[in-house]
Predict the structure.
Amino acid sequence: MARRAEFTTRGEEQTEELACRLGRMLRSPVVVALDGELGAGKTAFVRGLARGLDVAGPVSSPTFALMASHAGRLSLLHFDAWMEGRERAFLADGGAELFGQGVCAVEWAEKVADTLPMDRLEVRIERLPEAGEDDRRIVLACRGALPEVEAVLSTLLAGGDGGS
């Protein structure tokens, strides 16, 4: 089973499609910790993840709301730690209890890493300007014990989508 998988996407649509394939294969709650510079594609990744989880309706970054909840096959809780102090206070005051109640996507996760569970899927998105303005390197890495997610990463690396 793979603990790490690396992909290159060309454009927002491919980034969303990769995340959609991931979302289709998830069967149990997991924290997805997303990092990358401003405009790297974190929200695009979450939009694709939402589509794979059968979330209806639009998904946008909850920067000022701190968290958005979306119903789907598994619920999607979308956090944004751009405003680190507010997000840290929210998580410390009980928001962290939501982890484990669906797929929890945390943008700017490095800002609140000490409040996140040890077991999580880390997603690092980097621009590849030398390849093309819209090209991205996306690294998915398991931290802690995540055997189901490791199996999903192996399927993604093999080019599959779990048969869905």
Remarks:
- The chain is about 25% helix and 25% strand.
